[in-house]
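hey m, so remember when u said the tokens were messed up on ur end? i reran from scratch. heres the input so u can diff it against urs
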Amino acid sequence: MSRFSAVAFDLDDTLCRHDHDVDDLYGRAFEAAGVEPFGEPDELWPLLDGAPDPDDRVGYLGAGFARLAARHGRDVDPIALAEAFESVADDSRVAYLPGAVDALSAAASAGPVGILTNGPERRQRAKIEALGLADRVDAIVYAGDLPRRKPHVEPFDRLTAALSVDPGETLYVGNSLSYDVAGAHNAGLRSAWLRAEPDDAATPYRPDYVLDSLDELAALLTCDSGTEAGADA
């Protein structure tokens, strides 16, 4: 018997990731913008501020391109580059993360299953359809279409209402401490942090559980001992 009445997941970098050839995508963005390429994708990503802004992905990417251009001494329009990057990207090019399909099956054995993503439906729907997720879950909440996104309470309230479950009996699984773990805590859900590296520390956040792989979720749902907040973190 599961210790939870329902399980819900974040989408990007929790259940799935982009399946693009990043080098090819980067090069095509410069080509589309009519700009001589400079830098590498691995240089751009660390120059981005936090998680993507669902309401201004172009501005988010543009800030990174502006910093990259300054490092390379290039005088370019970073917004034009960001717009070109967005134009050649295909939101349907996604793949499940290892263990995601089994994690969804384990969650379905526990009770209703939900998805809560901070992106708007116009962007995230292509991913949902490509993964066949609509047939695997009972409710999907696109917080990008709401007045407030994670870590605010409203998206989580929408989710538990759609699943007809008590927040305190719901487990939310996500990779972001500041959006997923903080938001679940604020809304009264239990949280499972899917950390990228075993040495990543949760401090100052306190997830109820820490997962190093989605393969660990089935055991967490059915046993009395889990990886509690702070353990191994």
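this time it looks ok to me. Confidence is low (pLDDT under 50) at residues 225-233. if urs says something different then somethings off w ur setup not the seq
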